[in-house]
């Protein structure tokens, strides 16, 4: 039997519970070999729950151990850069949650270190693995939609106005909704339609978030809870994005409202996260109607995941780990990689620059 790829997870909270631990458990080629978190109580709880003996509060100890081949980084944004640079320097493959860092300059440093040290590097753009998003890309690339003209993205959540913890401070998170949610949709668009040429955008904050969930006072938020941009692609297509965490009535069983749409010269296709196994599809003379995603697009080839099992809006996320492990096992680049994270970060940074300058911002082509 081929030796398993030993994965250490840095940051054992909600994101790892929801995405990464189930993905590792599902993949017979992978082994959860180590855990790291600064919260010692949570760390010990997860050690018992997951049956992992190697635990540490220091990422460096995990990375430098001869028991670890790869790491997944699911820690606060401001910590990503140093952890990923450490992994690259020690030849440890790394998948990192988005945003990769607090600015494009930091992400560029991470990408170049990972590239130059020839490790597998991956950005955790989870929604790329939604079956309907994969099928939409197929319809676009095979010409079914015709020439793409418009891209449209909405991500609306109905969240409480209490504290986000570290996520609500710019020195720790970089930005709010823009970096946490809209950056995913920026990546959607670039993956589907190619590089952006220029953008105009802005952010706003409506909730002070000066109290915790238990009513205790805290420092008010200084990041956005609404973000939007319009953009021109190098291809000539145009795009519109909007995201908010304060859209009342958009619960949708906890998934919120997600709508990503391409209007082509021949047809329109729409992805919705809460129903990822269907597209909406329409042509002139008709209406948008549900289209079942064909079986071959419901999961990556070779994945052991059964697409008929579990909540569709949740289980596709496990394929993130499948791609990471596959790239390591097959000695190839992961998709999406740190370069994809860099492209999205450049655009997200440009939104903040556009807000500051009240101007359109040109997006420079980034060399690989």
What's the gist of this structure?
With 368 residues, the protein is of the alpha/beta class.
In terms of topology, how is this protein built?
Elements (H helix, E strand, L loop, with lengths): L4 E6 L3 H13 L3 E7 L3 H11 L4 E2 L2 H5 L6 E4 L6 H10 L3 E4 L7 H13 L4 E3 L7 H11 L6 E9 L13 H4 L3 H17 L2 E9 L21 E8 L4 E7 L12 E8 L3 E4 L6 E5 L6 E4 L19 H4 L3 H12 L7 H20 L3 E2 L6
Parallel strand pairs: 1-2, 1-4, 2-3, 4-5, 5-6, 7-10
Antiparallel strand pairs: 7-11, 8-9, 8-15, 9-10, 11-12, 12-13, 13-14
Helix pairs in contact: 1-10, 4-5, 5-11, 8-11
Q: Would you give an account of this structure?
A:
The protein has 368 residues and is an alpha/beta fold. It has helices at residues 14-26, 40-50, 59-63, 80-89, 104-116, 131-141, 170-173, 177-193, 312-315, 319-330, 338-357, and strands at 5-10, 30-36, 55-56, 70-73, 93-96, 121-123, 148-156, 196-204, 226-233, 238-244, 257-264, 268-271, 278-282, 289-292, 361-362. It has 2 domains: 5-126, NAD(P)-binding Rossmann-like Domain (Rossmann fold), CATH 3.40.50; 128-312 and 344-357, Dihydrodipicolinate Reductase, domain 2 (2-Layer Sandwich), CATH 3.30.360. A 9-stranded mixed β-sheet has the order 14-13-12-11-7-10-9-8-15. The longest helix has 20 residues, at 338-357.
């Amino acid at each position: 039997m081929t030796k398993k790829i030993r994965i250490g997870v840095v940051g054992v909270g909600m994101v790892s519970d929801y995405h990464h631990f189930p993905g590792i458990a599902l993949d017979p080629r992978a082994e959860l070999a180590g855990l790291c978190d600064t919260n010692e109580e949570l760390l010990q709880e997860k050690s018992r729950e997951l049956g992992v003996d190697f635990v540490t509060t220091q990422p460096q100890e995990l990375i430098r151990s001869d028991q670890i081949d790869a790491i997944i980084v699911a820690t606060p944004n401001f910590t990503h850069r140093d952890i990923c640079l450490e992994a690259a320097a020690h030849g440890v493959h790394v998948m990192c949650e988005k945003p990769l860092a607090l600015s494009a300059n930091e992400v560029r440093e991470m990408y170049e270190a990972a590239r130059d040290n020839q490790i597998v590097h991956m950005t955790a753009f989870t929604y790329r693995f939604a079956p309907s998003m994969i099928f939409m890309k197929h319809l676009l690339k095979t010409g079914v939609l015709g020439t793409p003209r418009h891209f449209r993205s909405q991500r609306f959540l109905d969240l409480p106005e209490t504290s986000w913890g570290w996520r609500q401070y710019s020195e720790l998170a970089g930005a709010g909704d823009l970096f946490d949610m809209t950056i995913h949709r920026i990546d959607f668009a670039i993956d589907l339609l190619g590089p952006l040429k220029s953008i105009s955008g802005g952010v706003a904050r409506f909730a002070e978030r000066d109290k915790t969930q238990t009513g205790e006072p805290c420092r008010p938020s200084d990041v956005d809870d609404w973000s939007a941009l319009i953009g021109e692609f190098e291809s000539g297509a145009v795009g519109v994005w909007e995201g908010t965490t304060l859209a009342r009535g958009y619960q949708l069983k906890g998934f919120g409202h997600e709508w990503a749409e391409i209007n082509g010269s021949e047809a329109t296709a729409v992805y919705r996260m809460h129903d990822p196994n269907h597209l909406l599809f329409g042509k002139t003379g008709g209406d948008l109607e549900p289209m079942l995603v064909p079986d071959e697009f419901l999961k990556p080839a070779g994945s052991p995941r059964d697409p008929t099992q579990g909540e569709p809006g949740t289980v596709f996320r496990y394929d993130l780990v499948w791609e990471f492990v596959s790239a390591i096992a097959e000695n190839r680049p992961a998709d999406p990689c740190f370069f994809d994270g860099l492209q999205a970060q450049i655009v997200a940074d440009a939104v903040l620059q556009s807000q500051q300058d009240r101007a359109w911002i040109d997006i420079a082509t980034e060399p690989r």
